[in-house]
Amino acid sequence: MTGNDICASEVSLRMSSAASAPADPAPRGARRILAAQAARYGSPEELRVVEGSLAAPAANEVTIETRAIGVNGFDAKMLSGVFGRDESALPLVPGLELAGVITAVGDRIAADGSYKIGDEVVSATSSGAYATSVNRDTTGLLRKPGDLTFEQAAGLVVVGGTAAQLVAAAAPTEGQTILIHGASGAVGRLAAQLAIAEGARVIGTASAKHHERLRELGVEPVAYGEGLEQRVRDVTPDGVAAALDTVGNDEAIDVSLAIVGDPQRVFTIAGFSRLDTGIVPLDGRPDQPAAEVRVASRPGLLRALATGELSFPIAATFPFEQAAEALTLVASGRAGGKVVLVVG
Description:
Helix 5 links the parallel strand 9 and strand 10. The strands form 3 sheets. Strands 4, 5, 6, 7, 8, 15 and 16 form a 7-stranded mixed sheet that branches. Strands 11-10-9-12-13-14 form a 6-stranded parallel sheet, sandwiched between helices. It is about 30% helix and about 25% strand.
């Protein structure tokens, strides 16, 4: 999968502002759309909203009119070129997850009736979600529960799957204590709830302003910063069974190693510069612990959020046209939870 899937195979885009003169008419069978794309690698500020055309869906595809798009740190990393700078992949349309309404179906889908126009769905199986409409293969497509808003559904599945993999990799048993770094963030908050549901005791690092909300979830919060190791030891003198790191800084890794002891019981989704310590990275690769959980957990996570078993507030929403601003906030690490783009 590349960040340019939507540009290369689905849509032809004008490299100009959407506010400029109208684009040429869309090819027969195509529809006009907007997409947020970057013409070069760099910061989120490179994103520009441009006009384009989306082809009719292939036989095994559906067209989804986007209503909400989840904004993730991965999107900023892709734009930065940290995963590689393939100039032939430009322009890049980021985005992994979206929720919306089916507006067209391919011939095979129409024949088997698996999806129909008007169905509300969630997709997180391909890049290129920063667009007002997309074509998606129905493999891995999820139905949006009626009790969820589009914003909730669009923001859950990527961070939720990551949280589920973290907890499954640690495999806490009843009564074990787990340390979660960044417990107030989107992934950390979900991981804490999933671990508690498994019977674990959760110690979570977060700034003081988030402590009360974490206590409401059953988390025992501790403030990060100087003296963190001792504060953790004060609340759990017998140590912890595993540490789940969503922050990736030296403090989180060093304290985890000191408290846990065994680097193979320290799981990180962010501390990749510290892999020389022996900690376990979880970045979506199929050969990593509990890799299958990242995708397999998504339907259950949507159901759990719909029934109220999970709490997942949206920290901020931005209109689609402010995709650059939304991604800048996420990349800063100061979002304080999930950020979602709203379309329309």
